[in-house]
Amino acid sequence: MTTHAKGHGTAVAEADWERAAELVRRAGSVALACHVSPDGDALGSMLGFGLALRETGKKVVASFGDRGFAVPRLLRFLPGQELLVEPSAYPAEPPLMITFDASTMDRLGLLIPNAGKAGELLVLDHHVSNTGFGSLHLVDPGAASTTMVTEELINRLGLAVGEDVATCLYTGLVTDTGSFRYSATTPAAHAMAGRLIAAGLKPDEIARELWDRSPFAYLRVLGAALDRVTLEPSEAGGLGLVWTYVTRADRAANALPYDEVEGVIDVVRRVDEADVAVVLKEGDDGVWNVSTRSKGAVDVGRACTALGGGGHRSAAGFSSRTSPDETMASLLPLLGP
After folding, report:
1. For the CA atoms of the chain, what is the radius of gyration?
2. Rounded distance between C-alpha atoms, residue 51 and residue 135, angstroms
3. Which of 334, 283, 286, 284 is nearest to 308 (CA)?
4. What is the pLDDT of residue 4?
5. What pLDDT, in 10s, does the model give residues 244-268?
6. pLDDT value for 64
7. Is 200 left (phi over 0), alpha (psi -120 to 50) or beta?
8. Do 34 and 151 form a contact (C-beta atoms < 8 A)?
9. Ranges of the chain with pLDDT below 50
10. Other CB atoms within 10 Å distance of the CB of residue 227
């Protein structure tokens, strides 16, 4: 019996919850996957569910489809990483494959062929932009994070939530709500946090790992990004847009890995004069990954989806193979009312 606050999970039909639980109960082995370049919600959902499921004696493997397969440094404190295998070692035709926090099949990267050959493909997500791929969908746009959907399924399966599982789920919850600062924060999100803290996790230690640590080199790269920051005033007289970019050369000059620059957007988005903040980050492969944030007046999720990405109204992203100036020229017209 679920312990969620009343009203949570109602976007998913009861029959789908029941079928999902039955698929998991019947499976002898389960293959888990989350989206490429995993954030706290993606990796936390996957590892939390994997740890809970492993306690039942099932064989569990987990992965994400990045060519440079590595857990981001900020998330290396998460328990359960012994479940991870490289994409090349992932089951080619898993009888049951479960994806976490991926709104499109493309977000599975190198694991797209595996998903295409899965006997059943169960999709857990909370993005309104989810395309409906897979054979069964547990997608709740009203959930503050995919870890909320994951906790619901864990509860329906009667699985235990100990400190390690709770740490994974809590990490996804606090990262996707901005430590409960974003508009997606709901009473159900706070109630879930209370349940997880009661399971024994240490919120102060998780917060320190996520937000209060960075190598010295990050400050130099941040300085370079802020030195080229641009404020675009709104033509309608309202709040404008602030944007900047981080190049491969910036990072190489300071020996800073790509995943260390995720926090730049959180600095840029504080600007009073802008409703929208954009940070373009050049990956080692030359592709620009674009992060967008909105304070509420603009739906950045719609704009990013139009450019092949996805996300939420207030936080979304996409990838681009054109220069920062060309990319912004494509994005700006899509950010109107």
Report:
1. 20
2. 24
3. 334
4. 40
5. 999 999 999 999 999 899 899 999 9
6. 98
7. left
8. no
9. 1-7
10. 8
Residues 164 and 29: beta-carbon distance below 8 Å: no
Q: Scanning the structure block, which residue is given the tokens 């992203």?
A: 317
The tokens of 224 are what? 């370079």
Look-up: residue for tokens 């990004």? 225
Q: Beginning with the edge strand found earlier in the chain, give each strand of the sheet holding 288-294 in spatial order.
A: 230-232, 240-246, 274-282, 288-294, 315-320, 310-311
* Complete edge-to-edge strand list for the sheet that includes strand 59-64: 59-64, 29-34, 96-100, 120-125, 136-139
- The owner of tokens 């329906």 is 156
Secondary structure in 3-state letters for the chain: CCCCCCCCCCCCCHHHHHHHHHHHHHCCEEEEEECCCCCHHHHHHHHHHHHHHHCCCCEEEEEECCCCCCCCHHHCCCCCHHHECCHHHCCCCCCEEEEECCCCHHHHHHHHHHHHCCCEEEEEECCCCCCCCCCEEEECCCCCCHHHHHHHHHHHCCCCCCHHHHHHHHHHHHHHCCCCCCCCCCHHHHHHHHHHHHCCCCHHHHHHHHHCCCCHHHHHHHHHHHHCCEEECCCCCCCEEEEEEECHHHHHHCCCCHHHHCCHHHHHCCCCCEEEEEEEEECCCCCEEEEEEECCCCCHHHHHHHCCCEECCCEEEEEECCCHHHHHHHHHHHHCC
Q: Give the residue carrying structure tokens 């050959």.
A: 117
pLDDT in tens, 56-87: 999 999 999 998 899 998 999 999 999 999 99
> CA nearest 114: which of 89, 90, 85?
90
Structure tokens that stand for 295 in this block:
């304070």
